Structure formats: C-alpha cells, structure tokens
Amino acid sequence: MKKFKFISILLFFGVFLGCQNQKEQENTLEKEFPEQDSVSVKENISQCYLFENGKDSIQLKFDLHENEVKGWMVYNFFEKDGSFGEIDGEFSGDTLKLEYAFLSEGMLSEQEVYFLKKGNQLFRGFGEMKMDVDSTMVYIQPNQISFEDTTPLTSMENCAEDFIDPKTIAFFKKEEEKN
Length: 179
Hints:
Largest sheet: 8 strands, antiparallel, barrel
Structural class: alpha+beta
Distance between the termini: 101 Å
Helix content: 10-25%
C-alpha cells in the first residue's frame, strides 16, 4: 500500500511538472514569434502605362504606396498641342483619381483626371467640368463620368526609370518654380 501511495505521488508530481513546463514553452513561443497580422510591409511600387498609335502617345508613370499615387503624365499627339506634368492622387476601388498639374502651350494648368482600371488597362473618364475656386478644372458630377475611352493605357511589364524623359520632368519643375 505504501508503494502504491508513493507511485501515485510521483506520478502526480510528474504530470504536474510536465504541464507547467508545457505552459512555459507556449508562453515563450508567443513572446518570440508575433502573429503574422501584426507585421505589415508597405513599399512603393512603380507602375507605367502607355497608349501608342502611330505618332500619338500617352505615358503615365507613378509610384503607388498603399492607395496613394504620385508621378508624371505626358500627352504627345502628332501635330497637336500636348501636355506634360505631375500627377497626385489615389485609387478609390477600381478608379484612379488624379490631380494633374501640367504645362500646355506654355501655360501651367490643373485639372482632375479619372481613370477606370479594367484588367491591365486604364480608361480615361470624360464628363462635364468647371473651374473651381482654386483655378482647377474639376468634374461637376463625378458619378456621371463616362469611361468610353478610345485611347486606353496599357500596363507596361517593365517600368524603366526614364520612362518619362528626365529632361521633360526637369523642364516642368523649372517652369513651375517661375509661377
């Protein structure tokens, strides 16, 4: 009988110490390895889009950080006035909403430009616009914009650093400083 009590006590302490050791290991693992959801990676992603038809082209290059967009756009149409300038905006769902500060015919202007993203293409939105108090052309009714664009921009697989000519960017910045 004494032997049975002795074995029971040893077994009890063995189980008790084993459970305590397992709890300490679980606590150690929780402290050393944070949950995957608490770690988030946020980086800039460069994206380039292009429309080309003969001597006509539209180039769009931007850095995307979360939903924020900053970059450059160039409209170059053969024997027509083009424009080039800086873009700043955001993605709202599948719609890219931009403020486009640009030079055209020697004048610095600003306007809203919306694009609808479908697959690997961006379709420009068209709608009635007006000049706001900041001298920016804005859509009067953004919910009625038509995205029936015949010049969709297609995503480029490789986004070269000089996709938008650095001389064009430097010229824009110089002209912007004058104003």
